[in-house]
Structures are given as structure tokens and as C-alpha cells.
Amino acid sequence: MALVFTAILMPGCVSRPLPPRPSVEELIQQAIEKSSADQAISPIETVVHEDAEIVRQETIIRDADGNVLDVQTDAPELNQWPGSDYFAGEGWSAHLSDSSNSDSPDGEDELIDDEFIETDVREVLIMLAEDAEIDLVMDPHVAGVVNTQINGMTIEQAIEKILMPLGLSYAKRGNQYIIAPPDPDSPLFPYISTQVPYRPNHVSPKTLVDTLPDRFEPYVELVNGSNLVMIDAPSNTVAAIQKRFAAIDQPIPQVTLEAIICVVSPDSGFQFGLDWQHAVQLNGETLARLGANGLALSGVYSPAGGRQAFSDFAQTSAFVKLLCEHGYLTIRATPHVMAQDGEQANIAINRETFFSIQPQSTSDNNAYFFQQEIQKVESGITLALTPTIRENTVTIDIEKAEVSEDIRNANTELAVNPFPIINRRSVSTTVHVEDRKTIVIGGLVQKETVDRINRIPGLSRLPLLGYLFETTQRQTREAEVVIFLSPRIERPRVSPTIVPASLTSPHGSVAH
């Protein structure tokens, strides 16, 4: 078999000279003489001439004795130096940047090394697209100057690094890259964006949208009549919005407010012949002190006794119920209400009084036509509370703690008045309470009217004459309304923040 040698001519270096080349006649004669001999192809030889001006690859075919049988030229003619920007030969392409070839047919995995200084972004993108042999579509508003260095990056990493400082986005569709600003008014925005629905689980959609910064507002839309928020944005922006929504859309902690509303009369202690100053004690320490106006549970406590007696609501509740059983006070209500963190809760034990408003007129038309309006007024006990959780402490904003009553029943001179006269006492404050601890609101005095009727059995029931055998004594007294209030934090389990993996790709590209 013949031997094959390849010679490559390149400038700037020296190798060995080519062997003497026989004439055509000699080659024909040798071929006739040794036509039956085995031929072999020798390995490719690389021959570089010092004075070469072009690059050329030749294949030399020799026989078994080393004689040249044929010479073939495989490379096309080149008309430029290798140091220029591009070779002009068909099928040849080279850029000043150094790229490492890979097995990828479209060049996406080729690593790019380049540096751009004060270069227009459109020019940079076109150069990268030509090197990577990709199809590039750019919005007319893509503009800016690039100053960056790319070292060992893929085409997607290079595009992302170039576009990031300019605030531009891109998306990939097959071998086509679409680049546009993230502006909903851009004609290419539907191609670089993706639509993702988000359904909140714990908060309202409006609450989520209201928490977004201004830069995210153009990409979200509330769907009226449904618990849905639509996100239409580039993938990296969608991931940022979803992550923010997931962090906010968590179970809201709640606070259970337990209250005991009781009334302490000033004569209750004396009625049963008991001195509270010495009766309510713990380990020799006085728990509460009875004043002239009743049991001032919100008054002065001893350092040890008061904290131990009313620190836990269960102990407080048992203590107050024990006092009620022995007649020292009256429990009006024991409401329990649950409120969300930061939301207002209302407790009301009221009496509604209705009265009419009728214009005074002496016209004869009133005998046949008249106008009457009914108004309503409430009186009783009202609480308006807003709890706020701070770690293991609850801040309770007591917007209104009110006690009111209609004083017409207590004053006979006002009983003839057709309109109600309401006497109101209210307090408002803000307190910090530990979880499951108790606070006391006192000093709210309420007037009570009590009718004591004494009758003679049997005779007081006689028709017409029964009133002669009974007496009615009306007593008016002031009773203190005391409110025990205890918050209990209901902590829900916090859901983990999860963002779909399809929206967290390292390059931010979207496949449509």
C-alpha cells in the first residue's frame, strides 16, 4: 500500500525541507513496474516552510520504497493571514475571542472569552450570535453601552451578564434568543414573559398586591370576583414576586381574648359581715384591699400576693367564681372572642332603648296624618380591643372600655322625659401583657336602681285592696364594674416558602 504524507505550510517557523520530487515520467514508469506490489499510506507529515504566505494542507501518496505516487490538496485556497479577524475561505470562521469547542452542534456549550469596552450592546450581541451560530431577535429599544469581561462562559451566561446592568431580559425559543426590555408595552414582551396564577391561602389578594414595590405593580393584576392574582412578567421577575407572596401568605397568628365582667356592690362585704382586708390573704401577704367604694381589684396589691393570685387566668377565673358563689360580686358575662393579629375585636353587653321623634304641631291635620321616626340608643358594657403579637407578649390597644346606663330610672324627676338620658364612663389605653397573663380594668362605676318590695302574704294579693298591704322601697346605689382580661396566643404552623423550580433557572430563560 502507498504511504500518505500531509504537509501544512505556515509562516513564522522552520521544519525540514521537502524530499526531492520525481518527474511525472519516472512516476509512470515506477507505477508500471510495481503495479502488483502492495501499497501503504504513511502517516500525515506536517511540513512548514519558513517563507510560506498561506496555509495549505497536502496529501502525498508514496509506494513501499518511498517513491511519491500522487499529491492531493485538501484545503481551500485562503487569501488572508491567520492573524486577521476572519478567514475568507468557505466553511472557516475565527474570531479574536478564544472559544473552546464542544460536542454541541449549535455551539451553545462553547465557552466564550472576550472583553468589551465602551461597545454598543447591539454590536456585542450580534458578535456573540455570529460566534455561537444562534438566531437573535432584538427589540428596537434595546440600547446601551457594554463594559464587561467574559471569561469561560456559555452563550446564555454571557448574554445574561451583558443584559443585567442594562435592565434587559431575554427568552429562548429553540435556537432563537429574543431580547427586549421588560416593558409590557414592548411588542416582544409576550415572548419574554410568562403568565403564572397565584392563589393566596391565608391573606386576601389585595393585601398581597398592596405590599408589592412600585417596580412590580405593572406585572400583577387582581382578578375580580375570585381569589386569584395573575403574574405576567419575565421568569426572574415572576420568581421574585412569587417568593415575596409566599413569604407574606402565611397563617396569621390569632389571639383568644378571655374576659370576666363582674359587678361589685359596695355593701356586699358588709352584708355578709366579712372584712376583706384580712380575709383575702396568701402566705401572710394581703392579696386585695377593700376600699370605701367597693372591692378595688385594680388597686393596690402586695408585691408577692397580687402577682401570684392574678398572674394566670385560670387561677383568676377560679378565684372570681368563688367570690361570686359567696355573694361578694356578680358575674355579668364571661365572653371569649378570637381576633387576628392586628384586627379589632368587640365585646358588647348592651341594652337597646328605642324612642320616637315626632314633630310638635297644633295643626288639625295631625288628627289624620302624622310622621314618626324611631331612634335607637344603646347602653351597657362595651369593649373594643385590638391585640398585636410581639413574640411572647401581646400588646392590647383598648380603644374603648365603656360602661353606660339610662339614668331616667334612677331619677324620678327625669322619668317623665320621653327621651333617654345616657350616662357613660369609658377608658382607653394600651397595655403589654404576657401570654396567658391577666390584666384588670376597674374604677368603672355603674348606677343601679333596686326596688325592695315588702308584702304581707295573702293580703297583698287581694284585688284593689292588695296595695294597702305592701310597701315598695326604691334604692339607688353605685356598683363598680371590674373587667378581667387575659390574652392567649394561638400560633399556627408556618408554611415553608416554595418557589417553582421552573422559574428559578440560573439564566432566567423561559421556553415557550
Can you tell me about this structure?
The chain contains ten helices and 25 strands. The chain has 512 residues and is α+β, with helices and mostly antiparallel strands. It folds into four domains: 3-73, no CATH class; 98-180, Phage tail protein beta-alpha-beta fold; 193-251, Ribosomal Protein S8, Chain: A, domain 1; 256-358 and 372-490, no CATH class. The protein is rod-shaped, with a radius of gyration of 48 Å. It is found in: Membrane. Its main location: membrane. Residues 134-182 form the Secretin/TonB short N-terminal domain. Keywords: Cell outer membrane, Membrane, Signal, Transport.
Q: Residue share in helices?
A: 10-25%
Largest sheet: 5 strands, antiparallel
By DSSP, the count of extended strands is: 25
Instruction: Count every helix, treating DSSP H or I runs of 4 or more residues as helices.
Output: 10
Shape: rod-shaped
First-last Cα distance: 57 Å
Unreliable spans: 1-18, 36-56, 75-107, 269-309, 503-512
Structural class: alpha+beta
Based on CA atoms alone, the radius of gyration comes out at 48 Å
- Report strand %: 35-45%
Question: How many domains would you count in the coordinates?
Answer: 4
Mean pLDDT: 72
